[in-house]
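Researcher: Final request for today, and then I'll write up notes for the group meeting. The sequence and the SMILES for NAP follow.
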Amino acid sequence: MHGWLVREFGGPERMLWTTLPDPVPGPRQLLVRVHGSGINFAETRMRAGTYGGQALPFVMGMESSGVVEAVGASVRGFAVGQRVFGRARGSHAELVLFDAEHTLAVPEKLDMTEAAAIPVGWLTAWHALITVADVQPGARVLIEAIGSSVGSAALQIAKWRGAWVAGTASRDDKAARGREAGADAGYNYKTEDVAAAAHRDTAGHGIDIGLMTIGEETATSLFDAMAAEGRIVMYGSTGGRQVCFNLNIGTRNLSLQSMSISTSARFLPETMRTFRDVALPLFARGVFKAPVDATLPMARLVEAHAMVDARTHFGKIVLLND
Ligand SMILES: NC(=O)c1ccc[n+]([C@@H]2O[C@H](COP(=O)([O-])OP(=O)(O)OC[C@H]3O[C@@H](n4cnc5c(N)ncnc54)[C@H](OP(=O)(O)O)[C@@H]3O)[C@@H](O)[C@H]2O)c1
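Model: Predicted protein-NAP complex:
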């Protein structure tokens, strides 16, 4: 098979489409022929060598949809020929191994390209808003980087739960796309006072749940936007890992919680379970729709990384095999 291999960390030129041995599934794994594979911001860090714990060499990609070609001896509930999707390292390839516990069956009415756009972004947003924050109807939610794949998923999940939702973006057109996609408010954090706008638009109440992902550039405005007793769920460090903030957040009883779906003990028993039982039927019914910003042939991964760097996308960029 072919896949996008990285032997040395560096720029996009370090990613090579090359011949690789076909992967062989272990007892709890499935061999999947990849239909499509979504692009994630974290992959640009993996390629560059700034993503913690990433060893060399490795095949790019963290998620895909595809068709099962072989099933490990201990796997139950999946069969050859079945359409599946999920988080799977090495997905920018023709074949990839899925761990059975991370594999989801593609609902009948869900398109395979849309399925490729779901796993990382939607499971992260679902974990943040449902498992960690348990967002309730009427909560005021602020989503940083609403156009990101996690942010655009969080918007639909928070609206489905009956929350009031504001989103931020670095450009007016992306803030507007957030509003078109259902956000009650959209702020350009480069040009607007987000905290003042959030208090204005919530009649002085402020934000109950803030999804934090950018870092130093927007941390103070996010803290200032929060309501008393508000909760911030930090899931990303897209703009850098060092953040300086004032401990006077204590006087407003703010909570700051961090999370990672890769390491959370709650991810498999809670997030995967409720996502299967609750979210998948909502995709099948068209209540949830993963926004696919662009599709590109698998061969154009370098271009896809340039699109992530350009930060103009809203939702997911998906690579497709022939
Ligand atoms: N905790 C977890 O388990 C988990 C799981 C998945 C992803 N993540 C993290 O979540 C974040 C979003 O991932 P994603 O794949 O959804 O991202 P994405 O679709 O590539 O979007 C990232 C967006 O972040 C914003 N941004 C702000 N400052 C930036 C900067 N200095 N450089 C680049 N982008 C910047 C940009 O939107 P604007 O220009 O509009 O600000 C950009 O489009 C990443 O940090 C990722 O590592 C965490």
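Model: The chain has nine helices and 16 strands. Residues 267-284 form the longest helix (18 residues).
Researcher: Thanks, that's everything.
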